Amino acid sequence: MAKRSKKPKIRPFGACPLCQNESILCDSHIVPKGFFEEVRAGGRPVVVSAMRKFFKQAQAGLHEYMLCPTCESDLGENYDKYAIDILRDGRAGASVQTNNDSFVLQGVDATRLRLFVLSVFWRAHHAKLPPLENVNIGHKAEEDIRSMHNTGSPPPRNSYSVFGLALIDQENNEIRRDFMSSVSRLKR
After folding, report:
1. Closest to 65 (Cα-Cα) out of 108, 102, 13, 103
2. I want to staple 33 with a disulfide (CB 3.0 to 4.6 A). Which of 6, 60, 64, 117 is the partner?
3. How far, in Å, CA of 186 to CA of 178, rounded?
4. Residue-wise pLDDT tens digits, 26-69
5. How many CA atoms lie within 13 A of 11 on its CB side?
6. Are 39 and 180 in contact (CB under 8 A)?
7. Distance (Å, rounded) from C-alpha 111 to C-alpha 37?
8. What is the pLDDT of residue 100?
């Protein structure tokens, strides 16, 4: 029996929100696909939810046509791969010091890691998928983050602080890398 060939996807043409140039757009992941590998290693789909009303099963996270090939490659090479090496794989010269209630990443390029985290929020801001369609980082933050990525400049000191949480396995005092949680809105 002959294999059916897959119909090629037609990639849309439009303005890339990062460089603002007209181009064919890539199928861009909001959170890099590499972060889902450990979680989906058991073969179960990851349940992605941002609202109680909306649940989506996804093997590789949420993605949509968003960035031009140049910007997709730039974010992937400069920030996504670095963050995956550190946060998922524990490599890239980083060491994690843990105790019962906290962890500290040492030996990391903090600017690069901050730009990665900001890029995920920036991508979520531009996403049109139902669980992310209401993410709004504000016009100033959107422009600041876009400018930082386009110029390669670090975030100004004391602006756009980033912190993280991790689930620490009590038995061996190591960070669990096979677990992912959805983000909830904090009320002020």
Report:
1. 13
2. 60
3. 25
4. 999 998 888 777 655 555 545 555 444 444 545 567 889 999 99
5. 16
6. yes
7. 25
8. 60
